[in-house]
Write a structure and sequence with these properties.
The longest helix has 15 residues. A hairpin with a 5-residue loop joins strand 1 and strand 2. Helix content is about 25%, strand content about 30%. It is built from three helices and six strands, in the order E-E-H-E-H-E-E-E-H. By secondary structure, it is an alpha+beta fold. It has a four-stranded antiparallel beta sheet with strand order 2-1-3-6.
Length: about 130
């Protein structure tokens, strides 16, 4: 599958347009988050920028084992970045669930979706350096 962009987001020289929140399972029933500003015209491009920017930890492995999900929010908001309004919990089957409490311009990517995107990006562009 090919991507529709002319210039990949991680190769563009432009300001960041979105925020990402990466949620990882700490293994003790808690999760840790990492927020980052990224480029892209939509949530898919923003996720690609997160995964393929040189030094990206998520882009280095094909299946991040502790990944709960990645949340992409359109626009830059320092308060949202500092304390993302997300509910993160385990459901009755023990699976992590991520629910944005402020759902305007927010996309939640599951571990399976992130893994699929990593695979597609690596097959077309190689690994992030």
């Amino acid at each position: 599958m090919t991507f529709s962009w002319k210039i990949p987001p991680w190769e563009r020289h432009e300001d960041c347009t979105s925020l990402t929140v990466t949620l990882m399972d700490q293994g003790d029933g808690h999760c840790r988050i990492s927020t980052e500003a990224v480029r892209g015209d939509d949530a898919i491009e923003a996720l690609a920028d997160l995964l393929m920017t040189p030094g990206s930890l998520l882009g280095l492995v094909s299946t991040p084992p502790a990944l709960i999900g990645v949340v992409v929010r359109r626009g830059i908001d320092v308060m949202w970045m500092a304390q993302p309004p997300l509910q993160v919990f385990r459901d009755g089957r023990g699976r992590w669930q991520v629910t944005p409490t402020d759902a305007s311009d927010v996309t939640v990517f599951s571990p399976m979706e992130v893994t699929g995107m990593i695979s597609r990006l690596q097959s077309q562009y190689g690994r992030a350096d």
